Amino acid sequence: MKKLLFPLFLLLVGANVNAQQDFFALVGKDTPSIIFNDFRAIDATNGTSGEKIFTSDFSAKVFSQTRNGSVTEDKSSYNNSQAINMATLAYDFNNNLVYMPMFSSNIYVLNAKTKDITLVENTVARVTSCDINSHMTRMATGYDGNIYAINNAGTQFLQISKKGNQYVVNDLGIIKDDISNGKNSFTKIETGFGGDMIADADHNFYVFSAYGNVFKISTKELKAKFVGKISGIPENYSVNGSAVNAKGNVVIASAKGAPMYEVDLNTLQAKQIGGEQNLHIYDLASKYFANDKAVSNNVFANLDIYPTRVDEQFININVNDKTVKGNIKFNVFDLSGKNVMTQNLSVKEGSLNQQVYLKNLVTGAYLVSITDESGKILLNKKILVTE
Predict the structure, then answer these.
(1) How many other CB atoms are found less than 10 A from the CB of residue 249?
(2) With 70 as the cut, is the pLDDT of residue 346 above it?
(3) Is the peptide bond before 307 cis (omega within 30 degrees of 0)?
(4) Alpha carbons 308 and 331: distance in angstroms, whole number
(5) Using CA atoms, how far apart are residues 369 and 101, in angstroms rounded to an integer?
(6) How many percent of the chain have pLDDT more than 70?
(7) What is the per-residue DSSP string for 108-149?
C-alpha cells in the first residue's frame, strides 16, 4: 500500500477545547436493529459524547426545496427527517449536517445551530427499500465543499452541491473494482458493502466497508482499489462510521455497541479509544481531511502559514529564517490555476509575523504560494476557506 503523509490540518492550540464542535456521530438506540436516536457531537480524542444536536423526538421543522414551503412528513414512512433507518452523515463547511435515510432518496440538510431542516427531494438516486444494493450507506464532504454519497454496490456515486440557494444532485457514475482487487471486491456484499467513507485533500475518497476492508476511490477513473484490511479490531467488529480527526487519523465506530478506534491510514493499524464503550454509531462526520501533502512544498522549515482551514477570513504568515530577505509575494490560486489574490510583504532581518485578510474568497480549496524577489518558490500549501 502506498504510504500517505498527512495531516493537512494540524492540531492547533485550543483544538481539544473545540473538539466536540467539529466531530459528529449518528447514534442509534440500544437495540439489535437500526433505530435512529440522535445526531450528537463527539470528542474524538477521548471517546465521549457532547451535545445532542437533533433527536428522533424533536419537533422537526422541515422546509421543502421543491415545494418552496414547510411540509409535514409521515413519521411512519421511510421518507422523513427522523426515519428509523438513518445510515449516512456529513458535515459541510457551513455548520450543516447532511444526511439520508438508508431506504430513501430524500436528502436532508440540518442547520446545527437553528435545527431547521431543508428537504432536498432527490430524483437522481434510485433507492428502494427492498434493494440492498441501492441503499445509500456512505457519505462525506469532499475537499471541494460538495457532499458525496455512494450506495452499497457502487452503482451510484452522488454529488450534492449548492448553487445559490438551491441544492443540486448529480450522479457521477458507476464505481467499478480495480483489476487488482481480486477476491476483495468493492461491489460484493461479503467484502465491500456498508461502512462509511472519508475524503482526502486530493479529491480521492476512502471507503471503510463494514467488514474492515479499505478501498481508495479515484474520482477521475471511478475505480475502487483495495488498499488493505484494518488490523487491531475484534474479528466480528462491524465498521459503520468513519471520519478524520484533528490529528489526521481516521476514527471508526460500530453500530453494534462497541468502542471507537483510531486508525492510522498509513498502516491501517487500529488502537482503541477510551471513553464510552457501548455507543451504537451508524455514521461519523467531521471537518477534517486526510492528505498526502502532494502539493505542499515548504522549502524553509521556519516559514509557514496557518491555519490551513480558514474559518474567519484571516491567515497568519510566519517567517523566522535569516536566509529569507527583502520582499516576498503572497499569492493565492484557485484549483483551476487562476491567481485570485496577490499581496507583497516585507521581511526584516529574516523575521515576519503578519496576518493577511483573504478578502472576497468564496468557500473552497486554494493553493497559497509564497515567492521571493527573484520568483523562487519558498512555500506551496493548500488551504481550505470556509464561510
Answers:
(1) 21
(2) yes
(3) yes
(4) 15
(5) 42
(6) 92
(7) EEEETTT-EEEEE--SS----TT-GGG-EEEEEE-TTS-EEE
C-alpha cell at 173: 457514475
Look at 387 and 26; give whichever has higher pLDDT: 26
Dihedral through CA 25, CA 26, CA 30, CA 34, nearest 10? -150
| Bridge partners, residue 38, by sequence | 27, 55
In this structure, of 15-24, 25-34, 111-120, 175-184, the range with the lowest mean pLDDT score is 15-24
What distance in Å separates the CA atoms of residue 34 and residue 281, rounded to the nearest whole number?
10
Q: What is the pLDDT of residues 89-134, one digit of tens each?
A: 999 877 899 999 999 999 999 998 899 999 999 999 999 989 999 9
Print burial letters for 193-230: b (CB count within 10 Å at least 16), e (below 16).
Answer: bbbbbbbbbbbbbbbbbbbbbbbbbebeeebbbbbeeb
CA pair distance 382, 370, nearest whole angstrom: 12
Q: Tell if the pTM clears 0.70, that is, is over it.
A: yes
d(CA 351, CA 367): 23
CA 303, CA 307: separation in Å to the nearest integer? 13
CA distance 290 to 80: 32
Mean pLDDT of 133-147: 93
